[in-house]
Amino acid sequence: KRSKLMQLGDQSWREYAIGIETFVSYRFDNDFRPFIAYNLFDAGDDYVIQPNFNADPNDVFKRQFAVIGVHYLIDQDTQLYVEARKDFGDFESNNKQQQALMEQSEDDGIAFGFRYVL
Prior knowledge:
The chain is mostly beta strands. The chain has one domain (16-116). It contains one helix and seven strands.
């Protein structure tokens, strides 16, 4: 948990946030590489978007998701992949427009692709 004292003019408040990001993978001899990842960022009870000082301090901003997938390494520079993302986030605000902005990039998804590195 991290704490930071914020001050604007004669007003001050303490802001708390916690976060964790994990990623585990293993490359097998047949060049398949499965992985799992987890990400959590909880802006805490005193959530205020900086520098948007008119945000409701009771807003909830908790980004949380897990990703699972497998990559196939064709060669050193080329890979095929499939990944799935499950969203567990919690975004709440009395201002529904603000809530929509917080939720904008958070959703479940599946990705299939081909990656080539130059």
